[in-house]
């Protein structure tokens, strides 16, 4: 299925020549997933070498339509600056991100300008590593519950679609970690939310891809828009309930005391306690927008990442065995992973990164240029241009990644990373508008995938290969069908 053509204010010039990808500048010391330093505000100005990037507008790298852009251009979009208050990055392209408004409102993903900066600063402490530490236990528990379910399914000795179960598990973990949900599993309402998100992402993708649907007047007359509004309502019912429950809990003195005693507040505590300089709280609309944004971004992306990783493991059994050996040794005779274990999962982490390269959960992002960009060869893009940054295509560009279709985790050894530009790999985007939840996501992916590998051997179903499909996140049109063989390794259960 083709990726959408953006509807540019100024059409991006189609270039045929791919330019050589530069090596990493000497001044850079950040590792490929350590881009958080760039998000906090103290960002250094760097001078970047010549253009690179291949931008394709289709999932198949064999069919490049539109090859364009430069690294300098990407830095420009990220608004990297040496000034004490960072220059604000280019805004998200309203033509695309405005479609989100009805659903997730003006939360962190869609906001721009000083309001975005304010909210980003406010919410960043919610992802401090002291906050993230106790989440490891939550990931363990939610994963065990999913694996118990898989144990039963595996008995039938046929392949099954893992995507939906991974999605429920990821939503359960997110709600427990960031929204203070108790120990129970997913309720009927949570399940309706999960289904609503699946509908919303499908309808949003369809709207992005259908030129006539970009017109509000036309769109709101269609049956698709009515389905969209119904799904929005279902999603909002769920998030409203989450906010109501937490507000009610805060009336309880004991609960208040517990929060005051915590060294670090969780995401929802931060939102509910936030005040601006004049002491004004977030409005109900602002609060709901952030909850809707994080509820969606925090589970659908990791679901995609974990599911495609397990698919890669089934596709490459030799890497699957090596990861299993590593995590088996780390776990020993315990049944759950702890925070300190995460740093020891070297091979597994490289495999996760390699699967994020080939199957980036967010395949494409969009920006609108606030200033013109002039390329070294004299070509330029005018201010106002709508730009699509095709992460999927960048990750499979053979001038950036030799033998780009080959699954090779060793691309992510420290030595190999050092020879590449830090922005060659950007599943979490880059610069100040990078993913605020990337550390949360990496931790979750490590715990979940390690436990999965300990309980089962994963194999392909040759009759049902996945068909990649962008649906805001990278999904498979026909699900991800795998065969699971229980391992009874004695640990991990
Ligand atoms: C494997 C998992 C994940 C991937 C690949 C991913 C990827 C991304 C990407 C590419 C962006 C930039 C989007 C854009 O510019 O349109 C982004 C932004 C964002 N992500 Fe993630 N994400 C993941 C997990 C998470 C999690 C777990 C959370 C929250 C708990 C989260 C919250 C956000 C938010 C709020 C933004 C907007 C940040 C801003 O603009 O300041 N993400 N993510």
Automatic annotation (TrEMBL):
Q: Which PROSITE patterns match?
A: CYTOCHROME_P450
Per the record, its GO cellular-component terms are: endoplasmic reticulum membrane
Q: Which residues form the signal peptide?
A: none
Classify the source by domain of life.
Eukaryota
The molecular function terms of the Gene Ontology recorded here are:
heme binding; iron ion binding; monooxygenase activity; oxidoreductase activity, acting on paired donors, with incorporation or reduction of molecular oxygen
Question: Where does this protein have compositionally biased stretches of type Low complexity?
Answer: 27-42
Keywords, alphabetical: Endoplasmic reticulum, Heme, Iron, Membrane, Metal-binding, Monooxygenase, Oxidoreductase
Q: Where is this region: Disordered?
A: 14-44
Question: Does this entry carry the keyword Cell membrane?
Answer: no
The UniProt entry, under Pfam families, shows: p450
Task: Give residues annotated as binding heme.
Answer: 435
Compartmental location:
Endoplasmic reticulum membrane
Coiled coil ranges (UniProt) are none
Similarity-based family:
Belongs to the cytochrome P450 family.
What name goes with this protein?
Answer: Cytochrome P450 4B1
- Organism encoding this protein: Panthera leo
């Amino acid at each position: 299925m083709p990726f959408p053509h953006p509807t540019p204010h100024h059409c991006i010039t189609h270039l045929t020549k791919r330019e050589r990808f530069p090596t990493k500048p000497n001044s850079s010391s950040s590792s490929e997933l350590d881009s958080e330093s760039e998000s906090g505000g103290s960002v250094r100005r760097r001078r970047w070498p010549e253009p690179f990037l291949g931008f394709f507008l289709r999932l198949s790298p064999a069919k490049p339509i539109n090859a364009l852009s430069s690294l300098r251009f990407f830095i420009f979009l990220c608004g990297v600056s040496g000034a004490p208050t960072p220059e604000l990055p280019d805004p998200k392209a309203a033509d695309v991100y405005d479609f989100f408004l009805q659903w997730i409102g003006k939360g962190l993903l869609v906001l721009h300008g000083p309001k975005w900066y304010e909210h980003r600063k406010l919410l960043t402490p919610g992802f401090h590593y002291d906050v993230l530490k106790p989440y490891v236990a939550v990931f363990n528990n939610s994963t065990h519950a999913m694996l118990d379910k898989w144990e039963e399914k595996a008995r039938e000795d046929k392949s099954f679609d893992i995507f939906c179960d991974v999605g429920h598990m990821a939503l359960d973990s997110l709600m427990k970690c960031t929204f203070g949900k108790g120990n129970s599993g997913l309720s009927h309402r949570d399940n309706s939310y999960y289904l609503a998100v699946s509908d919303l992402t499908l309808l949003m993708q369809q709207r992005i891809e259908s030129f006539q649907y970009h017109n509000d007047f036309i769109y709101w007359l269609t049956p698709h828009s009515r389905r969209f509004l119904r799904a929005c309502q279902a999603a909002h019912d769920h998030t409203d309930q989450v906010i109501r429950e937490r507000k009610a809990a805060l009336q309880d003195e004991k609960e208040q005391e517990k929060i005051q005693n915590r060294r670090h507040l969780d995401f929802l505590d931060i939102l509910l306690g936030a005040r601006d300089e004049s002491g004004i709280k977030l409005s109900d609309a602002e609060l709901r927008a952030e909850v809707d944004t994080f509820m969606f971004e925090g589970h659908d992306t990791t679901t995609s990442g974990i599911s495609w990783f397990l698919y890669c493991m089934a596709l490459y059994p030799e890497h699957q065995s090596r990861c299993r050996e590593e995590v088996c040794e780390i776990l020993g005779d315990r049944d759950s992973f702890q925070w300190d274990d995460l740093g020891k999962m070297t091979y597994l982490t490289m495999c996760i990164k390699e699967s994020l390269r080939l199957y980036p959960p967010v395949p494409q992002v969009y920006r609108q240029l606030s200033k013109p960009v002039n390329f070294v060869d004299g070509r330029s893009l005018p201010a106002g241009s709508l730009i699509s940054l095709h992460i999927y295509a960048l990750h499979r560009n053979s001038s950036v990644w030799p033998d780009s279709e080959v699954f090779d985790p060793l691309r992510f050894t420290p030595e190999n990373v050092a020879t590449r530009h830090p922005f060659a790999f950007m599943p979490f985007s880059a610069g100040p508008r990078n993913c605020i939840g990337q550390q949360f996501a990496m931790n979750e992916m490590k715990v979940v995938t390690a436990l999965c590998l300990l309980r089962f051997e994963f194999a392909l179903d040759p009759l049902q290969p996945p068909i990649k499909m962008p649906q805001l996140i990278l999904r498979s049109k026909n699900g991800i069908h795998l065969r699971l063989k229980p391992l009874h390794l004695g640990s991990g259960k």
